[in-house]
Structures are given as C-alpha cells and as structure tokens.
Amino acid sequence: MLSCLLIAGALGLGSLSLEPMDAEVRAGRCCEFRIAGAGQPPGNPFDPDAILLDAVFSDPAGKTVRIPAFWKQEFTRALTDERETLQSVGEPGWHVRFTPWESGTHHCDFLLGQGGAAPSPAGSATVEVLAAQAPMHGYIRVEPQSKRFLQYNDGTPMPLLGSNLCWPGGRGTYDYDDWLSAFSNAGMNFTRLWMWPLAFGIEVMPGERLNYNQTQAWRLDHAMGVAAEKGVGVMLCIDFHGIFQDEKDMWGGNDYWPTHPYNQTQGGPCAKQNDFFTNPDARKLYEKRLRYMVGRYGAYPSLLCWEFFNEINNVYSKLKRDDVVRWHGDMANVLHGMDPFHHPLTTSFGGKVEDRKMWEVPALDFTQYHLYYDSVRKGLGPYVVETAQRFAERYRRPMVIGEFGATYKNDGHELDPNDWCLRQGLWTGLLAGTAGTVMPWWWEGLQTHNRYRLWSSLSNFIKDTGFGSAAWYPAVAATPPEPAPVPGASEADRDAASGVGQDRNLGADPIAMTDGRTALVYLVDRRYEYPHGHGVAEPQPCETTLTLKGLAEGAYEVTWSDPETGTVTGSASAECHGGKLELASPSFHVDAAVRIVPAKKP
Q: Within 10 Å of residue 597's Cβ, how many Cβ atoms?
C-alpha cells in the first residue's frame, strides 16, 4: 500500500502521488517510483538551480537516506533484424529510486526547492516493503582492514571476476541480456560500462548540456537492472579521454571536443579543453550531472563504483596535469558528499602509466592499471606480481587491472591462439593480490571463442574458501630456481639456455595467496609463461616441487586441477612442518592450480 500527498504549490500543480513502477516493493531490490501528477514543471527539470526535488526515505528503524529525484522519459524497446529500436512512451516526469534493506513500513518525506532557494518540506508518503526473497549483502565497499579487496556491506568478500562490456553492438540492450546472463552462469561478478557518445553518454553531444539524453539514460537503466539481477557489479565510467581530442586518433575518430556541449562553440563555458577542469561554470555543470546520476543510478546494488575518466593521460598534451589531479580531488569530495549510497570512486590511465600524484589523492578509493602485453617482454606472472606489490605498498588501497589484452590493437587471437595470455592473466591477477582478475578489453570475443569457461574454472576454484576477506594475503611459494643468466648474453641466448619454448623441464613460477589455514596456488611452466612459447602447438609436460610457507602446522588435503577446464588432476595428503609444506606436482601442461585446505578431523 502506498499513500502520498505532496503540497506542490511551488510547482504550480495540485496533489502528487508516489506510484511504484514494479508490481511489488521488496527489500534488497532497487525500487522505482513515479511521482505522478507533477507534469512539466516551469524551468529546466534537469537543473537543480531551477527545480530541486529530493526524497528522504526512513526505514522502520529510523535510518534515513536522502535521494535526488530525477526527470525521466519512458521507452519500450524492440529488436528488428538484429537492431534495437526505442519508442518513447507517455510524457516525461519525476521519478525516484531507492533500495530498501528492511521490510515493513518506510516513510518518505519530500523536499522541494525552486529558483535556487533552499528546499523545504513538501509532503510525505508511506511505502510498505515486502521481505527479501534472497540473501541481501548490501552495497559494495572497500574492505576496511587490509584494503586489498572489495566486499559487500555485510562483510561478504567480493573478489572481482570479470571483463569489460563497455558498449553494445547493434542489438543494444539485448546484448546485455545475453552477456550478463553468460557472466552469471560463469561465476563472474564484475564488468565496466562507458558513458560516451556511442553508448550511455547523457551529456556529451551537441544540445545535451543540462538536457540529458534520455534514450542513452534508459539504456543504461536497463543494463544496470540486468546487472543487479545477475549479481554483477558495474564500474561506471562517466567520461572518456576522447571528449578532449580535437583530431582523429589511430582508430579514425574519438575527436569529440569540437562538438562537446561544454565547448564555447556549442554555447558552453570552455574556450579550451583544460577549462573543463578549472572554469567554475564548467565545474557547476558537471556537479549537476553528478547529482542527476546519483539520483538515477546510485540506488542500484549493481553500481560497484564511479570512474571519473578512462585513460585521461591520453590527452595530457591538451590539458594541465596538475589541474586534472586537483579536479579529481575536488570532484571526488563533491561526489562523496552527494552520494548517499557511498559508492567507491576511481579513475584510470592508459599505457601502463602510474601517476603517483593522482593515486595519492585521498578521496580516490582504489587504484587502476591498464595492461596490454605486446609492449612487455617480461613473463606475465612476475610482471603482474611486481606491479601489484608496488601499488599495494605505495597506496594502501585495492588495485584493479581494469583493462587487459595480449595487444591493444585487436582481440589478440593471432598472438594468443591458445588463450595462454588471457588465462594466465586471469589467474595471476587474482592470486597476485589485486582486487580480482585482470579485466579483458576485447569482450566481443568472449562468446565467439567460448572463453567464459576460463572464469568458470577460476570461480569454482575459490568457491567456499572465503577468499577475498581481510585475512588473505600473498604467500611465500617457491619451486626449483632456473639457471642463472649468462652475463652479456642476448635474450634469445638466455631463452635457449633456460629452455624457454623447448623440451627442457625447468619447473614453474608459483603465485599464491593464503589466510594461514587455506592456500590457493597457481603455477605456470617457465617455458610457456606468456609471452614465451606462446606459439608452441604441443607444449611439453612439466613436473615440479612446490614449497609453501605460512600455513599453520598440521595435516592438509591437496587438490590439483587444470586451470583451463577445472578438471581435478590429482590429490594428496600433506603435512606442514616447521612452517613449510612441500608438494610434488602431477604432470601438467603450461599451468596448474592447487588448493590446500585443512584435513578433516576423523
């Protein structure tokens, strides 16, 4: 049952009512309401200086959350000849979203402001919330103790297993129905979306300044809703570097500055690109867009975090770095202050760039790194481990490898026909101490090449271990060392001496995590550690010994598996003595995984 009487004289309207958009309102589910009877208000409904409408929800325990209402046009969608079309439905109007976490009677008080005046009480409503039908974990947060992983509000660990899905193909939102279902089936829980001119951008094209694109906003609604249904957290990238480019790039486009709505040529306040970060009017426009996004998307449990920019360093030639860094600190504080759901914040850099000044901004909640491997000669495992350790020590916050690929030029299938780079990246990223797997960029090939199986194997490997809690940390693991390099030898000579890509068995590089009682280890045969040996059609078998430190004394059950298929390849019992546990691996090709758990008491 819902009831509402809103005193709307300031809008020049009569009584308003709060109407649910869904058949039922349940705890743990993002609920949307139409504020009926509002109609078209005087002034710009996207401009809070003209009209501001907030809803303050109070749960049965008296806990309150104040949420911006937002102006919305409804649409229906259709798929014709594999192309999505949208059709507007009815008149636009005011809406509000919130996610209740308690069942029972919730109260809603409205606050209304007009013409820049301070908002004042404008009516109230009650909402009856039904009990949740599934376990509720809450929103996603940085794990507060070790600050290595993310977790839900209730403390449930959330090690990230995912991939980018930044924009759809011609099927539009129907692509996300398929992709996110496949994610869920594979045990994946993370993706990344871009708000840019070709998908989901609401204020990036001419005519959109304080006139937010409603078709793109609706498509993002749909993707966020499906992600919530499938248990997938979304890193929402608010802008990308191409909005500051004024010349075509290597892809033949992305030169959006001349048509950006903040550009003076389009009636905006910015004479040049850097004004976006320093001009007070530009900042005010951006803050208004943030408010709209908080109201429209912030209540979704699927919103993992806000990301200000994709690879902002790509356009540093057009900008002043210090102004960009300062802006991030200022806007992060603004967004933290206006977001009642307290989602984490980040940004990103391209080309393996680590900008220490940016990552030292206190209001950014985790760091990010983009890694394409065609410019790296070092073995993938040691490189990722070294990078993860450096970021953890310097910044003391989670680190996400937010883009990844064998190359930035294409999906890398020619360079990586066996998916060794992808598989080793996923496993190494998760067990090197980052917040999750690496996040591949070339998402269109996931279904084409049946790559979801790689996440399924990894998801099953960590299942029921509690992996991702504050107790987990990188473990000390070792296998027999490779021969010392010959001074002055070429890389080809060193590879030949060490047996890279050859039959000589030199053991494997181990990467391990432990909580002191359970350990998870991933090993890669040194001959085939990407990019070495990646063209080998028939890799030779490998056997090695593994020494692991840090486990408690006692008996353990050991299970070996194939990282590609998840198939169990061997099992054994082992004892940890003097802080060491030693194992002999079964024969494997390229890589292997081992799960070590305390033996069950008889």
A: 15
- The CATH code that applies to domain 2-129 is 2.60.40.10
pLDDT tens-digit readout, 451-503: 999 999 999 999 999 999 999 999 999 998 765 554 555 555 545 444 444 44
Rounded CA-CA distance 190/24 in Å is 27
CB 507 within 8 A of CB 544: yes
Percentage of the residues of the chain whose pLDDT score is greater than 90? 82
Residue closest to 290 by CA, chosen among 325, 341, 246, 256: 341
Instruction: Pick the more confident residue, 295 or 489.
Output: 295
Distance (Å, whole) CA 499 – CA 533: 10
Helix or strand run (H / E) with residue 569 = strand 568-577
pLDDT at 8 (0 to 100): 41
In contact, 358 and 312? CB cutoff 8 Å = no
- Contacts of residue 136, Cβ cutoff 8 Å, sequence gap at least 6: 27, 28, 101, 154
- DSSP-derived secondary structure for 516-558: SS-EEEEEEEGGGSTTTTTT-SSPPEE--EEEEESPPSEEEEE
CA angle, 164 then 165 then 166, to 5°: 95
> What residue type is assigned to position 491 of the chain?
E
Q: Name the H helices within 379-444.
A: 380-395, 420-431
Asked if residue 9 has pLDDT above 50, the reply is no
Q: What is the mean pLDDT of the chain?
A: 92
pLDDT for 237-249, tens place per residue?
Answer: 999 999 999 999 8
CATH topology of domain 160-463: TIM Barrel (3.20.20)
Topology alike, domains 2-129 and 474-485+499-598: yes
Of 127, 109, 105, residue with least CA distance to 19: 127
Choose among 338, 299, 298: nearest CA to 52. Answer: 338
| Tokens found for residue 529 | 């550690």
Strands 591-598 and 554-561: antiparallel
Structure tokens that stand for 273 in this block: 């690109």
Residues 6+ apart with CB under 8 A from 556: 573, 574, 575, 576, 581, 596, 597, 598, 599
In 340-484 the beta strands, taken as DSSP E runs, fall at 345-346, 367-372, 399-405, 473-474, 476-478
Residue whose token pair is 């749960």 = 59
- Residue 215 parent element (H or E): helix 214-230
Question: In CATH, what class is 474-485+499-598?
Answer: mainly beta
Separation of CA 419 from chain center: 22
Query: Quick one: which of 175, 169, 159 has its CA closest to 233?
Result: 159
Number of H helices, E strands in the chain: 11, 29
User: 483: cis peptide before it, omega within 30°?
Assistant: no
For residues 411 and 413, give the distance between their C-alpha atoms in angstroms, rounded to a whole number: 6
pTM of the entire predicted model: 0.93
Mean pLDDT in residue range 72-80: 97
Cα(142)–Cα(344) distance, rounded to whole angstroms?
A: 7
Indicate whether 516 pLDDT > 70: yes
- Domains of the chain, by residue range, sit at 2-129, 160-463, 474-485+499-598
The mean per-residue pLDDT over the stretch 283-299 comes to 98
Q: What is the DSSP secondary-structure string of 252-285?
A: S----GGG-TTBGGGT-SBSSTTHHHH-HHHHHH
Q: Give 146-204 pLDDT, tens digit per residue.
A: 999 999 999 999 999 999 999 999 999 999 999 999 999 999 999 999 999 999 999 99
Q: Where are the alpha helices (DSSP H) in 234-365?
A: 275-278, 280-297, 321-338, 356-359
